[in-house]
Amino acid sequence: MGRLCILGVRGRTAWCTLLLLLCCSGGDCESETRTPGPTDIQGVKPFHNEPQPQPFPEEEKANMPVFTMDYSRIQVPFEFTLWVLLASFAKIGFHIYHKITIWIPESCLLICIGLIVGGIMHSVKEKPPAVLSSDVFFLYMLPPIVLDSGYFMPTRPFFENVGTVLWYAVVGSLWNSVGIGMSLFAICQIEAFGVQDINLQENLLFASIISAVDPVAALCVFEDISVNEQIYIVIFGEGLFNDAVTVVLYNMFSYVADIPAVESVDVFLGVARFCVVSLGGLLFGVLFGIVAAFTTRFTHNSRQIEPLFVFMYSYLAYLVAELFAISSVLIITCAITMKYYVEENVSQRSCTTIRHVVKVLASISETLIFFFLGVVTITTEHEWNWAYILFTLLFAFIWRGLGILVLTQIINPFRTIPFSFKDQFGLAYSGLRGAVCFALVFTLPDTINRRKLFVTASIAIIFFTVFIQGISIRPIVEYMNIRRSNNEKYNINMEIHSRTMEHIVSGIEDLCGQWSHYYWKDKFKKFNDRILRRILLRDSRAESSIVSLYKKLELQSAIEMLDTPMGDLSAAPSVVSLHDEMKEASRPKKKFPTADVRNMHNILAKNMYKIRQKTLAYTNKYKLPDESRTREILIRRHSSIRRSLRASSFRDPLSENIPKSQRYYSLQPGSDLESAFALRRRSHGAGGSSTRSAIPLSPIKERSPGPAPHRTPTVQQSEDEEGAMPHVWSWPWMRVGPDTMNYRIYG
Amino acid sequence: MGSRASTLLREEEIEEIKKETGCKLCQNAPLYLSQTSITNPVFNSVFSREDFQRIPELAINPLGDRIINAFFPEGEDQVNFRGFMRTLAHFRPIEDNEKNKNAAPSEPLNSRTNKLLFAFRLYDLDRDDKISRDELLQVLRMMVGVNISDEQLGSIADRTIQEADTNGDNSISFNEFMKVLEKVDVEQKMSIRFLH
């Protein structure tokens, strides 16, 4: 605890220093250029080796200046770095006190810090950097976030629910915009509120801006409480595609706001434009993704620049989309397409690098956006109008709730797993507004005479939703989820067996795959296997020696870990200890005091594996996916395989001698190691790699298990399944090539 | 890969499977199943353990091996489509109208008892109808992370047995298993929503 306090104190002093620095050198203030000259070094003893007849240089002489400062030259990058550092220190500071981030979402905290900094800056009459101006936001801050969303998008759940997601995003946004716009226009007619001069077009424009949903904070909460996958992916997808629709609507309405009268042809053209924008974005994304994948096919000799392609191509795609004014958010299709092929082509290190850098960039962008939200709030001029703002809040809430309700009723019959009312409430309540809304409102042209009111209203909505909804969503959802009554009779048996059953069911679900939309998936798979994979993937042969060496080292370190006498990783009691245990069967029964039992409950609750929720792990914006648990499970299987092999090599491997419980691991004792590494995937005919032979797993009675431990089998390496486990690179010992592992370590 | 002895599924067989498992859609099931998980074509094939082990999600399921094993009858290494559907039928949701009507003499495969039996068999590997302490320990070890020592796990296992054991034989029989889980909503937990 003491250390934490010291860190906190150091963090705080660092903040203060940074704040002071920023205030002194902030924003648009006059740049302190100082011409280096003799006046600067008055009083500085010349320790330099230039021969000087006098100790102090005289004014007329132009001597070599010892100490010069040219601030204007470095001003922009310097300030940028300081801002980023400040925001990052804020993030470090939050996570020192864990409890804070549980109850208050990070975005709230960042806004608060931004408010404080903004207050300081305002009091010293500085202006903040124009970070949230249109160009900087859309060209520099939004692309990393888009790339991050696309790159870590869980493809299988997404494509299963794509209809629902698009339905909510497109129709929902339209519903919200039009609804809020109309209602606000109706309110404007009332004289008492003093906003009569806002016409319908401007209302619609404003409504389209504030219907942009950004559920980042809600997603964090949902992940912590393990909400079910369907809700998660729908909220995530809706937040993503919603931006695209909002931008289109915004452009449409801002165009319309200029012209005095709207004709029906314009409406029709608007719809056409929407289609062009969205389809264009999708197609461009896929195109660039394919080109990127193709490029990485040839990079096996220049591994260092591999990550570069991912970033450059996606940024290029984004800029081209901005050039043609098509939706840049839909460029996430670029990331989705790219990732699948690129991760097979590039080396493991490049893969890790790419993932880390994507996360870092997205994290910085996100942090800065919320931070500057706070700063700019203080420093802009506001115009407050109680009626308008309150009604905006009210209508935003009402229309979103209504929208979700109506839309869900319509789409539920088409869904395999329909949404219950609790799900709908979760969906409606997670409609937080965020950065896109803010940036868009700043790009409103000045021709709109109530611009300041709009700005204030948007800021008010953002603050309200982020703070109130963001903070309250956790208690509400937790309250709703508690279906079982928490009585003390919930004993250990129920806990263990419930978890077992959950694992079973999730296993069976994985076994069955998905049960709908199979037709298109099948078609795509065939197309993929026959055409795309051949073009875009380098022929999957053995990786370079460096990579295989890395894998071998990984495996050996894993083996060493198992060899040390740690009881923790033992998958099962070995044969010998089983016999010992049976002798102990007649031990006297112990009595367990309640404190012990509670202890056990805690231990179990903390340490039992949760069932797989791949979606959630991969879409968390602040963390890379955590694979320690899969590693543990795989190491354990590995060790059980080893154990069964070792057992068989030391004893008569007839089936009677081996207790039945030993049989039911993934490897029958005495049979081939090749089939033991069960993550071997089938080859989809990629390049017709016929060098691999599939040695079938034969029943135990037929084999002579003697030579088995001494052989060095070739292990089949085949391609990944679409959307299954794309990140096999983290389990190097499971993905092996024919020349890497030799299993003589067993013998 | 997946198709060995080709036993064509004829119409009669499909009817029998439907009656036995109660799955109305099982006729179309092979088409559905053929994409991600099991090999295609499924109609004529027989599955081996390899086919199941290929599924990556099962590989990182803590109980993956045992689940795979549950599909294969005792001592065999292959299962045909009928056997596969039989096992899968355990996970059909229980419909309300089934609870009331007097079913066939044998209980439907997805009754609560049979669901519990499935789970019980996952623990009880040697099929002696008792979960011994070691078997419980094995499953516990698989489900728990590396931070727990063997002693802690041992005492948890002891406590589990103590809670459930009523006849003092230091192991859990199926009846004791059922009794201790009587408050748990097994029908809902052990059902997959899209099997009808």
Helix content of chain B: 40-55%
> Which CATH-level-2 architecture of the largest domain in chain B?
Orthogonal Bundle
Please tell me the overall pLDDT of chain B.
72
- Terminal Cα span of chain B: 29 Å
Subcellular location (chain A): Cell membrane
GO cellular component, one term (chain A): plasma membrane
Protein name (chain A): Sodium/hydrogen exchanger
GO molecular function (chain A): potassium:proton antiporter activity; sodium:proton antiporter activity
Topology:
The complex is a heterodimer of chains A (747) and B (196).
Chain A: H1 2-24, H2 71-96, H3 98-103, H4 106-123, H5 134-151, H6 155-160, H7 162-188, H8 200-210, H9 216-224, H10 229-258, H11 264-296, H12 306-323, H13 332-345, H14 348-379, H15 386-411, H16 421-429, H17 435-442, H18 451-481, H19 492-512, H20 518-536, H21 545-563, H22 575-583, H23 594-607, H24 614-619, H25 628-650, H26 660-663
Chain B: H1 11-21, H2 29-33, E1 46-48, H3 49-53, H4 56-59, H5 64-71, E2 78-80, H6 81-89, H7 96-100, H8 112-123, E3 130-131, H9 133-143, H10 150-164, E4 172-173, H11 174-180, H12 186-189
Helix pairs in contact in B: 1-6, 9-10
